[in-house]
Amino acid sequence: MEESSRRDERPKAESELTKQGSQDPALQCIPIPVHSCVVVDQTIILAVMAAGLGLAPSAALAQNSEKARPGGNLPIITEVLYAVPKGEAGDASQDGSRHATGDEFVEIHNPSDTPIRLAGWTITDRNAPDAGQFLFVFPEFRLGPGETLVLFNGLDQTIPGPVGTAEQPPAKPNDKFNNAWVFTAGNTSSGVGFANSGDWVCLRTAQGEVVSCVIWGSPDEKPPVTDDRLITLPKTSRASTQRTLAGLDGSFEAHPTVAGLRYSPGTPPPPAAGRQLVVESDR
Ligand SMILES: [Ca+2]
Ligand SMILES: [Ca+2]
After folding, report:
1. Considering every ligand atom, which ligand is closest to the CA of 184?
2. What is the mean pLDDT of residues 86-104?
3. Is residue 274 part of a domain?
4. CB of 201 within 8 A of CB of 153?
5. How far is the CA of 254 from the centre of ligand 2 (A)?
6. Per-residue confidence (pLDDT) for residue 250, from 0 to 100
7. Which ligand minimizes its atom distance to the CA of 93?
8. For residues 214 and 77, is the Cβ–Cβ distance under 8 A?
């Protein structure tokens, strides 16, 4: 494209600024439209900047490909407790007793700006359905922007506060768990749970599409995906593993000791880097 025609495509305001200001192209001021007041991540900021620069939004998204995943806004697994600490320190469900299986949990967080409907979505482990599979199917439920849910194994547990099941979501957030939405899988067999030595956990949509999997150890059963939807957790003993940040750019670590506990069901990690508030300027 000729330089002259490219200049013609610039917004009028820019032409005016160019006339009034420096003639050095490197110092020209380019107005960037800001459309609304929302919490966004770097992807959206790049897209807004691209609009101001006359680029296609996809060009900006390509620069941040990790965020530009198929399916758009998706929940992420933020914590897994597969090795329940011994003794009282293992009572993650806060029912007064530690259970090697029943206190296991998976924490899921919605880092996006929109509610995510989870009805029919599943959480499973490595086992086949006829071989002690951990399987939870969500009831009608929406996880709001920035909200977190916790799914306990639930074997022999009496979890305090509002607790949902596969049949019915919790009536309200649970203030015993940082106001997260708490569910129990209500398992009734000690043979159904996460193997400390090696296992994987997958979150799937109602259509069976794998959203995210985490794996630890070396389970014999192969996970359903091997691309970047599969995240390897550190091996831990007597602590959960959690994301370092509540976004896709967070890696997993052994949960540090916080207030004497090595897990935090319902408390998500800090927001991912780059997530910030864009303040509107035009209304
Ligand atoms: Ca317990
Ligand atoms: Ca947590």
Report:
1. 1
2. 97
3. no
4. no
5. 11
6. 77
7. 1
8. yes
**Centroid of ligand 2 to alpha carbon of 257 (angstroms):** 12
Q: How many helices (H) and strands (E) does the chain have?
A: 4, 15
- Per the structure block, which two tokens stand in for 137? 């199917």
**35 — phi, psi (to 5°)?**
-100, -25
The domain boundary, picked from 68, 94, 122, lies at 68
Angstrom distance (rounded) from CA 273 to CA 42? 9
The yes-or-no verdict on residue 98 having pLDDT over 50 is yes
Ligand nearest the Cα of residue 265 is 2
For 65, counting Cβ atoms within 10 Å of its Cβ (0-12 exposed, 13-18 middle, 19+ buried), the class is: exposed
- 26 secondary structure, DSSP code: G
Residue 282 belongs to some domain of the structure: no
From residue 201, give the alpha-carbon distance in Å to each of 4, 88, 120, 125.
57, 26, 16, 4
For residue 84, the CA-to-ligand 1 centroid distance in Å is: 10
What's the pLDDT at 247? Answer: 84
- C-alpha of residue 173 to centroid of ligand 1, in Å: 19
Amino acid letter, residue 62 = A
Report which bound ligand comes closest to the CA of 266: 2
Q: How far is the CA of 240 from the centre of ligand 1 (A)?
A: 15
Whether 47 and 180 map to the same domain: the answer is no
The closest ligand to the CA of 242 turns out to be: 2
The pocket of ion ligand 2, defined by CB under 5 A, consists of 79, 107, 264, 267
One domain, residues 159 and 220:
yes
Q: pLDDT band at residue 52, thresholds of 50, 70 and 90?
A: very low
Domain span including residue 62:
3-68
The number of the ligand nearest the C-alpha atom of 109 reads 2
CATH of residue 100's domain is 2.60.40.1260
If asked whether residues 146 and 105 sit together in one domain, one would say yes
